[in-house]
Design a protein that fits this description.
Distance between the termini: 8 Å
Strand order of the largest sheet: 2-1-3-5-4
Structural class: alpha/beta
CATH superfamily: HybD-like
Number of strands: 5
Number of domains: 1
Helix content: 25-40%
Largest sheet: 5 strands, mixed
Number of helices: 4
Shape: globular
Length: 156
């Protein structure tokens, strides 16, 4: 069976940016098939790139706060196209956005396979620990979307 990585990303010290971390923590307490790996990467983008390089994942589901102009708490399912042919990737593990993570992966000789982003519209990315009300309320919906993607087999 192809392997799937569910990667929660974000900074828990910047309010709603901790959304992906919260979803990953919730999902990590659940049982998935052995091919599905749920990890909390937080702000460790370089670690995520190395996990993708060595993990032989056919599919990656990133869970993150994603500002797209909707109402706070809105959940998005995005199938991004990463163009890693541009500028060289930086190796600053604390500021790596998904584009840089996948550029680093490509620079290291890896390929990402299928990538999905389960995003949530943030209300606030100000300093502080804890999700805003609308974003906290969206955690279960995002977790359900990840479960659905894994169960329907569209991610692997």
């Amino acid at each position: 069976m192809p392997r799937t990585l569910v990667a929660g990303v974000g900074n828990i010290f910047l309010g709603d940016d901790g959304f992906g971390v919260e979803v990953a923590q919730q999902l990590s307490r659940e049982e998935f098939p052995c091919e599905v790996h749920v990890r909390d990467f937080g702000i460790r983008g370089l670690h995520l790139a190395f996990e993708l390089l060595g993990g032989d994942y056919a599919t990656t589901i990133l869970v993150d706060a994603t500002a797209r102009g909707g109402a706070p708490g809105t959940i998005y399912l995005i199938e991004p196209e990463f163009d890693a042919s541009g500028a060289p990737a930086t190796a600053d593990a604390h500021t790596m956005d998904p584009q840089t993570v996948f550029a680093t992966l490509k620079a290291l000789g890896g390929t990402p396979g299928q990538v999905w982003i389960v995003g949530c519209e943030p209300e606030s990315l100000d300093e502080g620990i804890g999700l805003s009300g609308p974003v906290a309320a969206a955690v279960n919906e995002a977790a359900q979307l990840v479960r659905h993607l894994v169960a329907r087999g569209s991610v692997g």
